[in-house]
Known about the structure:
Blueprint: E1 2-7, H1 11-24, E2 28-34, H2 37-47, E3 51-55, H3 63-70, E4 78-83, H4 88-94, E5 101-104, H5 109-154, H6 162-171, E6 178-187, H7 192-206, E7 213-217, E8 220-226, H8 234-243, E9 249-254, E10 258-259, H9 263-281, H10 284-299, H11 306-320, H12 323-339, H13 343-348, H14 355-359, H15 365-387, H16 393-405, H17 412-418, H18 423-434, H19 438-456, H20 461-467, H21 473-484, H22 488-499
Parallel strand pairs: 1-2, 1-3, 3-4, 4-5
Antiparallel strand pairs: 6-8, 6-9, 6-10, 7-8
Helix pairs in contact: 2-3, 5-6, 10-11, 10-12, 11-12, 17-18
Amino acid sequence: MYQVMIVDDEEPVLDSFAYILRKDVTDFVLCGKARSGTEAVNMIQKLTPDLVFMDIQMPGIDGIEAIKQIRPNYPNTVFILATAYERFDIAQKAIPLGVFSYLVKPISKRTLLEELSKVKNHLDQLKNKDHRRLEDVRLLQKKKGEEKHRFLSNLIWRDPDDTATNEFLQLFHISCDRAVLYLIESVGNISEDQKISLYESITEKIQYKYQCFDTIVTGRMLLFFPEEHSLKNLDFHLQKIVNQLSPYTFILGQGGLYPLSSLHKSFSEAFKPFAAAEKKEKSYSADRERVQFICNNILARDNSGSKSSFEDYWIEIFNSFSFHVALGKMVALFTRLLGKLDTHVLTALDLNIYPAEEIMVLKSVDEWQQWSEHIIRRIQKVNKINNQQSYPKPLTASLAYIRENYQKPLQLSLVADEYGITGSYLSRLFKKHLDTTFIDYINQLRLNKAIILLESKKYSIKEIAYMVGYQDPNYFSRIFRQHMGISPSDLEKEGIKNDK
């Protein structure tokens, strides 16, 4: 609903317009009447109407002068001029003011309704443009927030590459070659909401003096200060802000000033106070208890918090120890994790994981992250099956049949016929008890077998496709990429590369 104001010094005109708006118009509502240009200027500032019917000849300032005074502050307000005479000179004055139209009195009901229809279309277009503009701004802000978090959080375990750095600098209009990182954590008995509120307060206050970008990683606030301007006394001001937030307690870590290509060094330095504090608090037995907690968290029925607890742990380990030692600790964690699973279920579902062999050959933290996320998803899926009650006999028998005959062409209806049930019933059993489909189960089984054969390096991809039950090697490659996120040939190349 759009608001309309009528400005005219003739009472019959005001009453006539008001009557038509009330009786014959649904998209506009009368919000006010003014009887002079001066009164119109004052009322428009209070009521901010969308449309103003403005008489030209009025006592005091005329309609043209009133619009001149109003227009700078209300650029989207629609003005329609009304006058008893058609004068070219008035039309000329109205054009620079962006007047929507010029009507000659007396204005008929039909003309008024036609003009209102045009104005509605115009205002609708303006509203749609505003909505699109706001949506564009919202999407841009969201993208900037995501890119900022991605760039800064990646500094935890590696230096940024040139592409990521340039994209970040361009997105935030930063011009610098070096930066410094700080890491801050509020410790003690405090909720996550309180932490976030404190972190926002710190960022807001430090931004009065220095340009900085922040994100939250593993419960700590990471601050990035580009050296666009002098960073002199930054440590003093940041420490002062933290001290003012008493009685809350903080750990503050300061990194050195480094080129953007070596920023992980700055993070490693900023992390030292946290590693020292945790080392002081934790004993060997406490670390064992923490690993035990993480394993239980990963295998819990509700494992919603497992990713964060596991990620906190490995990030801490990789920043506290050499890369090789950190990998060794991860071998110990996954060995304990797998020890909690039923070996019969692991064998039945072909979850063949060898922590020492698979982890110790990893070359970077990126490779470790990809491997661990993939393996934990597989372990949680197997554990979900392990936690379920025993399967109905038709499903148990069907699984055994599939494991013995996966190299052969298998169809849902044929397997179901083997045990005297319908294909639709067997399909429901797969969905209910295994949370998967018949075909996805077979594909995963075949692909697990294929990975083992690929790693043996004894057979070609074509031979492996036939050996695990695929008659078309191209189809095998497509299914492999779809499920594993990598092609068989790429996996084969990775294996060869790791052997060198």
